[in-house]
Write a structure and sequence with these properties.
Distance between the termini: 29 Å
Low-confidence stretches: none
Number of strands: 5
Strand content: 15-25%
Structural class: alpha/beta
Helix content: 40-55%
Order of helices and strands: EEEHHEHEHHH
Number of helices: 6
Strand order of the largest sheet: 1-2-4-3-5
Mean pLDDT: 88
Shape: globular
Length: 153
Amino acid sequence: MITIHSILGSRLYLHPDPRKIVHFIGGFGFGSCPALFYHQLAHKLASKGYSVILHPFPFNPFKPDHWSLAISLYRRLKILQLKELPKLISNSTFLEARNHVWLGHSLGCKLIELLEILTLEEPARSQALKSILSPSETESINSATSLENWQAP
C-alpha cells in the first residue's frame, strides 16, 4: 500500500518495498505545484514499485536564477535524506544514495544537472564549479550549501 506524506513542501509517495526512490523535479510553471500537475505520474510510478518524491520549487520568470533554485532544492533534498526519510523508511538500504534516481521535466532537467554538480564529493565538486563559475561564485555556492549554514526551508 502506497502512503502519501507532505514534508517541507515535497510530496512523498512511499512504496513499502521500493525498487528505487525517484526524485522528480517538474518544469517551468508546473514545478511550483508538482503534487497537482504530476500526481498521476507519481501514482503510476508508485504502482510499479517505486517511491516517488515530488520536489516543488518557486520560480520567478522575471528573475530566473537557476543556481538559487538548485541550492534551495539541494538543501531540501539533504534535509529529507538526513532527517525525514529515516523516520518513514524502515529499510535503511533505500536511504543509500545508490538507490535514489532523478527524473525531470523541462526546467527540472536543467536543475538536475546543477544538483548533480552540487552532490559531487570534494574535490570534484569544487573543480566542476571552478570550470564554469568565477572563484567568488564558487565560494558563494560552497558557502550556501555548507551544512553549517543550513536551516529548514
